[in-house]
Design a protein that fits this description.
CATH class of one domain: Alpha Beta
Largest sheet: 18 strands, parallel
Distance between the termini: 63 Å
Order of helices and strands: EEEEEEEEEEEEEEEHEEEEEEHE
Structural class: mainly beta
Oligomer: single chain
Radius of gyration: 28 Å
Number of strands: 22
Number of helices: 2
Strand content: 15-25%
CATH topology of one domain: Leucine-rich repeat, LRR (right-handed beta-alpha superhelix)
Shape: globular
CATH superfamily of one domain: Ribonuclease Inhibitor
CATH architecture of one domain: Alpha-Beta Horseshoe
Length: 426
């Protein structure tokens, strides 16, 4: 027998929903697998779900609910509840009786206390309580050995002293955008952890043993107060994506070069001089951010970055695009905005795969013909330079040319107006 999907959308007076009255014409309740009333501006809901024997999903997101008292204990098939984007100040009591619940979404509410009983729902695999008002978490996370995904991001957590050791199945943890300064040592016991986001906090050091999280593939430590990372950081050899942007790192350890599986590396605004010597062996990196680091030239270590496709080096102190750029033969997008580049050398023609180039806010006065002869190039941004004229060519491949805030002559502007095959902004 094929189960049917019903979308409930009947509105009653004063934005109040009666579950049973809304289904007066339904005879086969056992065929309903999802009950959805999202984005209906509901203030309250009442009734019973007892007839929905095969109900799997309840979606009440995007309403004005601050309470939910309908008994759900008889719904043995219920595996997902979405109460996000409402006005709950605590986790509704009925949730704790959902014995087979796997996914619970309470994001974007007004919850200020994380009730530890939610971790006693032994079937729960995914819990999202992001974008709430939780200030501290100081209890045990219960006996849930099935939880795989936990998102506590965008709260106001300043105290995170908990025991994580029992979350043996956790593969995803996001506690970003809080006020956490110290990470509990028990985090090192999460040996199944695959993705960890600790960004936008006040973390100043990583706990002992952190680098034994050997299954980590994605780690975000950006926008913290880290002054150093452990000497054995290279033990995280499975890392594919690492974000260290906006910290106060004084050095990168020599073991850093052991992270040979990295394909995305973000090292913006580190305030360190060690970049030149410790990030040279990442042959698999496709996406690299080196912005805000006072580079004066294209670094020699690019000789190993033969697979790099996306490079950000904005807001450095580059004065030219030197011959080292030719190492990056696979490059498709380059951002060199906010440097001191006053000329574009013919080295740029080495980048045969280049599609997008951003040279905004430099000191360019002249645009060479050969820049526009790159066959793959479609978008060129040259805003806020010193350009007066553009070359007299057809721009056959270019689709977007940005020249705002330059010193274009009247003759040049007239010439640009005649270019019907591309979008020109000046």
């Amino acid at each position: 027998m094929m189960l049917l999907f019903f979308l409930i959308s009947l509105v009653f007076a004063d934005n109040i929903y009666d579950v049973n009255k809304s289904l007066t014409n339904v005879k086969e309740f056992d065929k309903i697998i999802e009950y959805s009333l999202k984005n209906k501006d509901i203030d309250s809901i009442y009734g019973t779900f007892d007839k929905f024997k095969n109900l799997k999903v309840i979606n009440l997101s995007g309403n004005n609910l601050n309470s939910f008292d309908i008994n759900l204990s008889s719904l043995d098939s219920l595996v997902e509840i979405d109460l996000s984007k409402n006005k709950f100040s605590s986790i509704p009591e009925v949730i704790f009786n959902c014995k087979n619940l796997k996914t619970l979404n309470l994001s974007k509410n007004e919850i200020n206390y994380l009730d530890p009983r939610v971790f006693n729902i032994s079937s729960l695999e995914k819990l999202i309580i992001s974008n709430n008002h939780i200030i501290e978490i100081n209890n045990d996370f219960g006996n849930n050995t099935n939880l795989k995904h936990l998102n506590l991001s965008n709260n106001s957590i300043n105290y995170f002293n908990i025991n994580l050791t029992k979350l043996v199945s956790l593969t995803y943890l996001d506690i970003s955008n809080n006020k956490i300064s110290t990470i509990p040592g028990s985090i090192v016991k999460l040996n199944q952890l695959n993705e960890l986001n600790l960004s936008e906090n006040d973390i100043y050091e990583l706990p002992d043993g952190f680098c034994y999280l050997e299954k980590l593939e994605k780690l975000d430590l950006s926008n913290n107060n880290l002054k150093e990372i452990p000497d054995n950081f290279g033990n995280l050899f499975r890392l594919k994506s690492l974000n260290l942007n906006d910290n106060n790192l004084e050095k990168l350890p020599s073991s850093f070069n052991k992270l040979i599986k990295l394909n995305a590396l973000f090292l913006s605004n580190l305030g360190t001089n060690s970049l030149k010597s410790n990030i040279g062996l990442f042959k698999e990196v496709i996406n690299l951010d080196l912005s805000n680091n006072k580079f004066e030239s294209i670094p020699d270590f690019f000789a190993n970055y033969t697979n790099l496709k996306y490079l950000i080096m904005r807001n450095n102190e580059l004065k030219s695009i030197d011959s080292n750029i030719c190492y990056l033969s696979s490059l498709e997008s380059i951002d060199l905005a906010k440097n001191q580049i006053d000329s574009i050398s013919q080295n740029i023609t080495c980048l045969s795969q280049l599609r997008i180039i951003n040279l905004n806010e430099n000191k360019l006065k002249v645009l060479p013909d050969y820049l526009f002869n790159l066959n793959s190039l479609t978008s060129v941004s040259l805003n806020s330079n010193l350009i007066e004229e553009v070359p007299d060519i057809q721009f056959s491949n270019i689709k977007i040319l940005q020249l705002r805030n330059n010193f274009l002559t009247e003759t040049t502007i007239l010439k640009l107006k005649e270019l019907n095959n591309l979008k020109v902004y000046y």
